[in-house]
């Protein structure tokens, strides 16, 4: 029995590290949150999320802040470890490799912003322009895994690089746009914590690694606390610690944390972020915060990524190691890029922190735009996968 239990546990962890299962769990959690918010249990859930958890003399956090500022910092730590690897050893470790996805990513940011502002300029919704710029890599790769059997690996590599660059943009937006009243002293203390964390991580191969790992956990918690009270969004602590940690132990930690992030943290965040009451209004009465996101995610990402991606491959063709992706592949990548979800939900919460109605409409826009992108990506990715499978069969004949 213990062996069967261990095998089942191992199998469940591997499923949570796969591309498909986390995407399904995220979608299910978001749907459950939306249903719960519009059920009789909605007010009780909202009250629970606003329950204060106080540490006397230190700070007070609501349950919602524990999830969005605390647990989500772990997700951003995992993202930062992936960023560090890709920028130093992976698909973005040289200008030659990075230039094409970087130009496509720029299009996938600029065009959605332009579409959003075209709809929201001059209204209270205008401040939500960062919301449709994000790509949820877990969701996008999940859709690619489900519908993309037979696609060339170059498309997956391109999408991964694109999403990683999108993550960098999202992190910069969170750090720069949503920072208020910075406490320089606390921020400096956080910087010291990051440096100490990085130095300790380089001693993990010694015989005192268990004690060092324990001290690192304490330093990480203190660093998060310093960032939280500094006025900078607390998830940035996870980014800084992930970038500072020595790469080999960081990748091991990422591997260990991945099932918890995919199976617990992200679904819990998706559930709480989607606790939105659907407004009893006609479509014409919905604010630009809804329409801007719902349109900019699928339309802006497809246009921006495909057009800028096509242009980037023509500009860098002479130096490219791989042949350029067909425009139809770029359209599929653009549709996958329109699945904003996790970071877009966080950006909605931050952009409209002072206006609950606009925040809720932006969240509904994220869910609507992401669902449209999922459906569009399923069609385009399936069509391209069939195309490549036919090519393989014709070559075999």
Give structural notes.
This protein has 397 residues and is mainly α. The protein has helices at 2-17, 20-37, 42-49, 63-88, 95-120, 137-147, 153-177, 184-201, 209-230, 235-244, 247-273, 288-315, 327-337, 341-351, 356-396, and strands spanning 52-55, 59-62. The chain has a two-stranded antiparallel ribbon. The chain is globular and about 65 Å long. The mean pLDDT is 87.
Number of strands: 2
SS strand fraction = under 5%
What is the helix/strand order?
Answer: HHHEEHHHHHHHHHHHH
Q: Cα-atom Rg, whole angstroms?
A: 21 Å
In order across it, which strands form the biggest sheet? Answer: 1-2
Helix content: over 70%
Number of helices: 15
Shape: globular
Average of pLDDT: 87
Which class do the helix and strand fractions yield?
mainly alpha
- Sketch the major β-sheet: 2 strands, antiparallel
Low-confidence stretches: none
List keywords for this structure.
397 residues; 75% helix
């Amino acid at each position: 029995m213990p062996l069967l239990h261990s095998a089942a546990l191992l199998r469940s962890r591997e499923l949570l590290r796969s591309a498909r299962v986390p995407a399904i769990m995220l979608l299910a959690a978001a749907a459950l949150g939306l249903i719960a918010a519009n059920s009789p249990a909605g007010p009780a859930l909202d009250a629970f999320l606003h329950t204060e958890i106080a540490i006397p003399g230190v700070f007070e956090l609501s349950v919602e802040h524990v999830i969005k500022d605390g647990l989500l910092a772990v997700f951003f730590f995992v993202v930062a470890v992936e960023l560090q690897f890709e920028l130093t050893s992976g698909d973005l470790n040289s200008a030659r490799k990075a230039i094409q996805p970087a130009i496509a990513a720029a299009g996938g940011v600029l065009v959605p912003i332009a579409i959003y502002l075209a709809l929201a300029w001059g209204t209270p919704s205008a401040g939500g322009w960062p919301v449709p710029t994000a790509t949820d890599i877990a969701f996008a790769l999940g859709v690619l895994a489900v519908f993309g059997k037979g696609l060339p690996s170059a498309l997956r590599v391109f999408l991964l690089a694109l999403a990683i660059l999108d993550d960098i943009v999202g992190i910069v937006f969170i750090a720069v746009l949503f920072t208020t009243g910075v406490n320089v002293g606390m921020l400096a203390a956080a910087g010291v914590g990051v440096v100490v964390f990085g130095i300790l991580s380089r001693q993990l191969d010694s015989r005192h690694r268990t004690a060092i790992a324990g001290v690192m956990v304490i330093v990480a918690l203190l660093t998060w606390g310093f960032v939280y009270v500094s006025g900078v969004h607390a998830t940035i602590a996870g980014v800084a610690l992930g970038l500072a940690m020595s790469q080999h132990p960081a990748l091991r930690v990422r591997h260990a944390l991945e099932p918890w992030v995919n199976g617990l943290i992200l679904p819990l965040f998706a559930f709480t972020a989607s606790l939105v009451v659907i407004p009893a209004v006609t479509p014409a009465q919905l604010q630009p915060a809804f329409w801007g996101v719902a349109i900019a995610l699928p339309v802006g990402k497809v246009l921006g990524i495909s057009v800028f991606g096509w242009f980037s491959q023509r500009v860098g063709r002479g130096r490219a190691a791989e042949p350029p992706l067909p425009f139809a592949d770029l359209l599929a990548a653009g549709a996958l890029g329109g699945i904003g979800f996790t970071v877009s939900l966080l950006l909605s919460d931050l952009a409209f922190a002072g206006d609950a109605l606009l925040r809720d409409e932006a969240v509904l826009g994220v869910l609507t735009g992401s669902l449209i992108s999922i459906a569009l990506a399923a069609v385009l990715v399936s069509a391209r996968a069939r195309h490549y499978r036919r090519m393989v069969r014709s070559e075999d004949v």
